[in-house]
Amino acid sequence: SHLASRFNAHLTFNVLNTVQGMVLINEKDEDIELIGTYSRVLRKMLINDSLETSLGNEMDIISDYISIEKYRMESNFTYEMKLPKSQLQKKIPKSLIISLAENAIKHGIRYLGNSAYLTIDSPSTDFDTIRVRNNAPITDGSTKGRNGIGLIRDLIKKYNELTGSSLSLVINSNLSQNHQEMEFEALVSLK
Q1: If we measure between CA atoms, which residue out of 122, 130, 99, 107 comes closest to residue 181?
Q2: pLDDT tens digits, residue range 11-63?
Q3: Predicted confidence (pLDDT) per residue in 81-101, tens digit
Q4: Among 19, 34, 72, 82, which has the highest number of CB atoms less than 10 A from its own CB?
Q5: CA distances for 106 relative to 36, 109, 189, angstroms
Q6: Which candidate, 135, 12, 133, 4, places its Cα nearest to that of 65?
């Protein structure tokens, strides 16, 4: 519960800063829509005090979060969610997948703008693995170790301890085919 509240607070303050900046700068109708979208995110994340949520609920929150980030960054990066409806009822740790999506945006997508992508799918036929893929610019290595994954690993560890589950997280990275950027994938095993 403490770990989930850290995730929720982190996301809350990031989005509040975005809303404040956009309202001060623009004073547009889109700002009103942004506030409504953020309200839905807060309602879905903070009202349910459970350790778990359905994958479908998490995907709804991610869709709203993506809308907020696209507006904030003035970017139209590609977002795809390719999960079968049968998988959306699976229970997962609350804030797990949204934290991976937020991490992908913060450490990669925001630097690439319209050429960026974020895909959430399942590479396995039994749908017991969730994959979050994104691209990011090639760096000089100065950001190594600061990729935001520590909190996510802590969440999985705590969830496993509390529930007796054996969720795991694997992060892979490769040079893209065009050799101009990196491709990252986070694989969460729900077994």
Answers
A1: 107
A2: 776 776 676 676 777 666 777 677 777 777 777 776 667 889 999 999 999 99
A3: 999 888 899 999 988 999 999
A4: 34
A5: 22, 7, 23
A6: 12
104-115 residues labelled b (16+ CB within 10 A) or e (exposed)? bbebbbbbbeee
Q: Which of 184, 151, 147 is nearest to 5 (CA)?
A: 151
Other Cβ atoms within 10 Å of 141 Cβ, number: 7
Backbone dihedral angles phi then psi of residue 168, each to the nearest 5 degrees: -145, 160
- Unique residue bearing structure tokens 């039994």: 126
Question: Does residue 131 contact residue 145 with C-beta atoms inside 8 Å?
Answer: no
pTM: 0.79
Which whole-number Å values give the CA distances from 66 to 8, 89, 115, 184, in the listed order? 16, 21, 15, 18
C-alpha distances in Å from residue 56, one per residue of 98, 111, 150, 180: 12, 28, 24, 34
Residue-by-residue DSSP string for 38-73: HHHHHHHHHS---SEEEHHHHHHHHHHHHHHHHHHH
Give the number of residues written for the chain: 191
Residues 6+ apart with CB under 8 A from 93: 4, 51, 52, 53, 155, 156, 159, 167
